Amino acid sequence: MKSWRLLPRTEHLAKYIECYWFLEKEPHDQNFNFPKLYPDPSSHLIIARSNRAYEYTHGSIVQNARGSHWVFPHVNTFILDHSAPFAILGVKFKIGALYSLDINSVTSCLDKIEEVEVNCLSGTDIFDSELLLIAAEDDKHQAICKLEQLLSPWLIDNYEDKHSRLVREILPLLSHTPVNEIGDQLHLSQRTTERSFYRVTGLSMKQVQSMLRLENLLNDLYQRDESDINWGDIAYKYRFSDQSHLIRQLKSKIGSTPARYAQQRDLTIDIYGNFEIT
């Protein structure tokens, strides 16, 4: 298995893109075949070979995509079918970025998987996902250089308004500020901040704050052995009202109680690691 993660190289791309990542599962890899993809407020553009099919399941709902596709912000946990070898190059966009890039309606995209012709985004007919994936396997810096050349014309042609600018101010506050105090912090009414945030992201501030907290918690647990986990301490550290609140939230978000999750370790972060930036 190969994996890596890199930051954008240029300022106008970094405004909308959080990072690039690559994952390859080779034929000899025998790890877990059906990992869970936990809730994420960001959109990911997945660049894949056109002959490879991908499956995302939540409950009784199954979504399929062949080749390159979008994984839009999702409040539900997907079960992925990764039983066959694959290679994918991902572009993780910042929360709310698609609003400025005019990708459909942000609210209608939630929990959706959608096939995409990357040439249509980049405005060029020379995009070759096969060559880009080969480059990603051999030389990640060369691959990102090529990818940014393709994405630049699209990302330069963007739309910014007062709502997108306000959301850019709100996002850093979500990590440490109660949602009901964010309006005061920005000298605006709470209703104004909530409406702009929902308009740009399709999610409430509380939903995004909860998903970011879950991601930080899971990153923390990834680094601990089961015997090193004190759930009372974890509940306190991540500002749950008590351990019962933590149990309910994990069961609701990833379908497992804390104890069961600590034994199974069946999320994508557990199967593929925490893609360190290199």
Automatic annotation (TrEMBL):
The keyword Kinase does not apply. The keyword Transcription applies. Keywords: DNA-binding, Transcription, Transcription regulation. Residues 164-264 form the HTH araC/xylS-type domain. Pfam families: DUF6597 (PF20240), HTH_18 (PF12833). SMART domains: HTH_ARAC (SM00342). PANTHER family: HTH-TYPE TRANSCRIPTIONAL ACTIVATOR RHAS, HTH-TYPE TRANSCRIPTIONAL ACTIVATOR RHAS-RELATED. This is HTH-type transcriptional regulator, AraC family. It comes from Paraglaciecola agarilytica NO2.
